[in-house]
Structures
1.
Amino acid sequence: MKDLKKRVIQSGLAKVCSQVANSALRLGYIAAMARLLHPEDFGLVAMVIAVTSFYELFTTAGLLLAAVQSSRITEDQISTLFWVNLLVGAVLFLVCIATAPVLVSFYGEPRLFWITMTVGFGFLFNAACAQHSALLQRELRYVELSIIETTSLVVGCGIGVSLAASGFGYWGLVGSTIATPAITGALLWARTGWVPGLPRRHADVRSLLGFGGTVTLNNLIVHLAYNLDKLLIGRVWGPGALGIYGTAYQLANAPTRDAMGAIGVVAFAALARLQEEPARLKSYFLRGFALVVSATMPITLFAAVFADDIVLFLLGPKWAQAATVYRLLAPTILVFSIINPTGWLLQSVGLQGRSLRIACAIAPLAVTGFVLGLPYGPAGVALGFSVAMTLWLVPHVFWCLHGTAVRPYEILIAALPPFAASVAAVGLAYGVAELWLDQLPVPARLALAGMAMGGTYLAVLMFAMDQKNFYWGLLRDIRGASPSGSVAP
């Protein structure tokens, strides 16, 4: 692709803007729902999502990524993949229905029956639009995808808040969960205008199905490893404790999740186009990695230090216990910001088998952390998770990068400046808050501490860490990639 650089920059900028808007929407939604509902309401839905999110991994069967990663794909192949996705979605819908009475029995909570039945419709909606999304991603049309995602989220959150405010309780959370994928699917169909043809027996999708199956199995193992904590807490400690833990986890994971969402999907699509150009692939990967850690590290450290104020401001006083969990999860989130981008590299160059083996190593380590911490409640599980992931960091990096164009020391070089700048900035912000802002209202204290940290972080990163050339060069590229500009060489 001759204009790959321009399209990657435009797509990345669109995704970043979209994710910033979506993050604000999600935080506003959580804050509104936290005041309208109780932790138990969140816990009831989390009990179901802990199981159905496992099923969700099979919705696209890895075929969306397979369609994006493939260097060439035909109309017959993508139509056949659409029908495979739809069949899988229908099966998962039936499995979800069959699961409803099992969850009622497992948790001893009859309200879970209709929640589970309703959530099942989401599998049909997601399956029906997976290949439409793949078509846009292959062409790096992330501006359109970003508009669709944000529009769907706005409407879905609005439906959820309206239901909760009208006295429907936890059904507000369920309604939002179903409405968002339904609206996304309708908009994707309308925007692409693509209507799938009939499936073809000779469409030669075997390699695509193999890639998708390996990716799905990898995601399955990782998902089980990272979500067994919620299942265990719900079973042992009940919906109230799970509501506290699950909501704290959502808030703590937001920086990494949103940065990955903004940069990761664009990076994967771009890296897949550069499989035969190792030097360019390495350059694109390291720049994307640097952007992720630069965005997530300062936010994660700030959130850990000011967890009490953040929880009080966003969720209210009845959620005070979530602050401890939020803070204890911070090391896990920092590790995620470093190890998750390596998945882009492995899968984009067809090393999904290695990624699967790594997932098999992570799973028992994470589960051990959960089990050891479970007797001590949500805070103990959070601590066990963070200890396990911190121990895993170095082996993960060396294993992932072995034999690739990227060397482990290059990851360290990329991550060290934002980490050092973040530590310095959060230390100053904490000192300012303790000395001069202690008597201020929570919103003002957070705003002023945030400004102190943000200014310090940028100054240290750009000048003390000598990163100004990298970021100013990126700004020049963004300006050059604007519709009225020319692409930087």
2.
Amino acid sequence: MTSEDQNRRVLFLSVGGSPQPLCTSVRKGQPDHVVFVVSDGSDGSQSSQDMVQEILQTEGCPNGRTTIRVPPDDIDGALAKIEPELSRALNDNACVTVDYTGGTKSMTSAMVLAATSHESVRLQFMAGSRIDLTHVKEGTEKPVEIPTELIGLSQTFGIVRKFVGHRNYGAALSVLREIDRTFARMKRKVPSAWRKSAGEWRKWVAIFDYWDRFDHAAAWDKLRNGLDCGAPHATWFEKEGKALFARLERLAVTRSTPSNELLEDLWLNAERRARLGLYDDAVARLYRLMEAAVQTRLREEHEIRTDNVPLDRLPDGLRKKSLRLGQPNTVKLALSDAADLLAHLDPTDELPRILKKGNPNWQGKRNRSILAHGFQPLGENDWKQARSWFEQRSGVLWKDRLNRPLSEQLPDRLPIF
């Protein structure tokens, strides 16, 4: 292929409306070949084919030209004819510009869709000084390029919204970071409103990503740092997310300490994992909730930590079977032993009795799962069984001790900045 082939300029021009800006596009673009996209009159209207003759009189209009006749109000039909011709020009290594100034709205949409499906296409329209709301002052027209990256970015923002809609904060954050890198490459082409929103969204989503990974302290630090700067992503919590602000603060303050609010957080986190189809992760969180419920009860009502229990707090049976730790006169208790201790300290507590009523079906499957002691993945039905078991016993496990309704899930919509 010669260098002339590689430098060949092809202009795709949608025809309709006023011919003057289309003539200006040809004159200023100096293409080697023009592809005229005209309406075919299939809806009973006059075809824009006749306007091509006027454009051909433009100074510098090339001899090379192709005409594509498309339906004026059928995007799919127009795209089916435009896209193959556009691909052929690109396959010949031509420099392609798509000008969608003229034609119907459907023709414009088809031109834009065809252009943005290829990274190397230059997309533009002709703008000029207006005499009134309908007429442009002749001779003032100039091409305005629309970076195709921006259209791709608008679709990427839609992906971010979908991820947040599923409360998949980690995935949303990854996409927002990639948008940041794209912005850095584009520099001044990025609309300031997009740059501001994307930056604040990235920081806002990062807080929930930390929260979703139980790193409440890091999430709280991010939020506090944003508040110190008066950043919109942080002040949103004080204005529209007050309940979330209070919850995160309590979880951060009580970090590394079992609490009923942490049990609630485990429950909500498990439901988020299940919605993403991560059933092993979801059931693992419920099992941890069961352990943490006993740990919470012992700490809050008996001032006992299961990883450092004084021997003199244990009944004789537990004292003999428990393993000693490095510290003198203390032991670390497994879940079943911790439940036995709780029953010994408070015979009226229902929690130990719930845990001692045999091995529920879901727990046996959990024990054979890949995240426990076996190698089998858990499925949706396994999750539903486990969730139902916990839902029926949630009052005893933690809900009754919250002394308030269950908190709402973490947000599934991006804020408006």
3.
Amino acid sequence: MIWRGLLILTLLLWGPTAAAGQQQVTIFAAASTQPALSKLAERFEQGEDEEIGLRLVFAATSTLAKQIAAGAPADLFLAASEDWMDYLARRDLLAPGSRRNLLGNRLALIAPANGAAAPPFDWSRPQSLLALGRLALGDPDHVPAGIYAKAALETLGVWPDLAPSSARTANVRAALALVERKEVGAAIVYRSDAQGRGDVVTLGLVPSQLHPPIRYPLAIVAGRDSAAVRRAYDFLSGPKARAVFAEAGFQPLANGG
């Protein structure tokens, strides 16, 4: 099946083998959560719950949702889009009562760092985006970050001008990589992706009123509920995880957002 290839590929990113006697909990998570979630997984296994191992599978939210619908063995799903969580809910693939909005985020306009301080972008002059060069973004046909970015650019009235030359990537981290390699002039990514990256500069945060709210829902996959899965779920929803997510540039949401 297609999902098996995805699982093998993405586990190369972060997927330690479970220690003897450990229960394994598999988390499918949006690519943008990789740095924060990897850090949390290490803390969980080393200090919080040594009896449970966390296997993290990262990709675009749309890809992961389709893999879960096709039967991929995910226990938890952390999405970057409410729409793709709805996709699974319509198919009765979420454990009842487990869905909650865990995080918020912002979009950032970034460019390659050149050693000089970049002036903040003036969003009252959106046509200036054309002067930045080729723009990278997650594929707006299915990648949440790209969908949000396209909505903002449409609101600004510049999407028809930018779309033909835009670099559309499989996930938001790939758009960031294009800027890091200076293969494009700019990109729109999540604030959490750009934070702390010395090889890119943030020109400004995209005004949040230009696009729908960015929310990351978390849910247990139907049929995968267990004591181990619940312990991992509670950890990701708890105060220690919220602190790590906040440090990484996310906005933890109280009471399910």
